[in-house]
Amino acid sequence: MRFKQLLFIGTLLGLGFTSCNKDDDDGGGTTVPERDRGEQAIEDDEALQEYLSTHFYNYEEFETPPENFDYRIAIDTIAGENEDKIALLDSDALMEKEVTDDSVSYTLYILKVREGGGRKPTFADSTLVGYKGQLLNDNVFDQSLVVPLWFDFPGTITTNNRGQLVRVGYVEARGFIHGLTEFGEATNYTINPDNTVNWENYGIGAIFMPSGLGYFSSAQSGIPAYSPLIFEINLYRAVEADHDRDGIPSWKEDLDEDENLFNDDTDQNRYPNYFDTDDDGDGTPTRREITILQDGTVEFPDKNNDGTPDYLDPDIFQE
C-alpha cells in the first residue's frame, strides 16, 4: 500500500485527465485522453467477476482449522484436484458494496471470512493492518502481513517550501478504505515474551476492487494503469482519529456527510475543519466551543439558537 502526497489550494485538486505520450513517427507529443471511468468500471467488473468465479479460498481450513493454522487467506484456481471447490463468487462470505466515486457507481467485492469483534473504523480513522496486495494475475505488488502497518485514511496536512498546503500520508486506493470499514478490530491481545502479539477475534478478509477505486490511470510500481486490485487484510486496530485534537472526531467534521473531509472548510482558510483547531475562524478554539462529557460524548452548544452550533458560528465567540 502506498501513501500519496498531493498539492491543493483551497479545495482538493484532482489529477489531470490527460497524459503525454511520445509519437515515435514524428517526434512530437500526442495527447492521450484518459479512459472513460464509467466504461472502465464495467470492464473492471467483468474482470473481477471472472476472477471470482474461477477462484476459491481456503474456506475448509477456516471451518476446521488444522493444528498451527495461521488464519491467512489462500486463494487458488478452481482446476484439477480443486474442481469441486466453491467459487469466491458463490461463497456466503462474499458481499457486494456499491460505492459512488467521481459520479461513477462501482461494485466492491468484500470477502468477510471473519468480521472481527471490535470497533469498525470510519472513513476518517487510523487502522493497524496486515495486508497483501496483488493483481488479478496473482502478481504480488506489496505486502506486510507479518508486521502490520498503521494507515491514516485521510492523512495530514502540512506546508511545503513554496507555502502551498500539502496533503501527506493518505490512502489513495479508496476501495481499501471502503472495504476495511466493513470489518471490526481485534477484541483483545496479549504480548509474548519475544514481543510478538497474539490478537484475538480480529477481522480477516479480502477486498476486490475495480481500478476506479484503486489507482485508475496512475501506474504504480508493479501496478499497471487500469488494474483491478486484490487486498488480503487482517484488521487489528481501529482508532477513532481526531487529527486536529480539537475534541471532535475527524469523521464528525464531515459536515455534508459525503465522506470527503476536504470540502468542509467553514471559515474558508484553506484548512479543512478536520485539520483546523478554530473551525469558524472567530478566534476561539473549537475545543472551547464544544462540551465533552465524562463518557467522551461531544455536545455542540448553540447559544443563540440559530441552528448553527457555536463552534461553526463566527458570531458566537469568547473574548
Which labels suit this protein?
319 residues, mainly beta, 6-stranded antiparallel β-sheet, 3 helices, 9% helix, globular, PPIase_FKBP_dom
Descriptive account of the structure:
With 319 residues, the protein is mainly β. The chain has two domains: 3-15 and 31-239, Chitinase A, domain 3 (Roll); 244-319, no CATH class. Helix content is 9%, strand content 33%. The chain has helices spanning 37-54, 59-63, 174-180; strands at 3-8, 18-22, 29-33, 55-57, 75-77, 94-101, 104-114, 126-134, 140-152, 156-159, 165-171, 188-191, 197-200, 203-209, 229-239, 291-292, 298-299. A six-stranded antiparallel beta sheet has the order 6-7-14-15-8-9, sandwiched between helices. A hairpin with a 5-residue loop joins strand 16 (291-292) and strand 17 (298-299). It is globular. The termini are far apart. 31% of the residues are buried. The model is unreliable at 3-31 (pLDDT under 50).
Distance from N terminus to C terminus (CA atoms, Å) equals 46 Å
Q: What does the radius of gyration come to? A: 22 Å
CATH class of the largest domain: Alpha Beta
Low-confidence stretches: 3-31
Percent of sequence in beta strands: 25-35%
Average per-residue pLDDT, rounded, comes to 90
What series of H and E elements makes up the topology? EEEHEHEEEEEEEHEEEEEE
Q: Regarding quaternary structure, how should these chains be classified?
A: single chain
The CATH architecture of the largest domain would be Roll
Tally of alpha and pi helices: 3
| CATH fold category name of the largest domain | Chitinase A, domain 3
Describe the global form: globular
Which structural class matches the secondary elements? mainly beta
The strand count comes to 17
Major beta sheet summary: 6 strands, antiparallel
Count of discrete domains? 2
Across the major sheet, the strand order is 6-7-14-15-8-9
Amount of helix:
under 10%
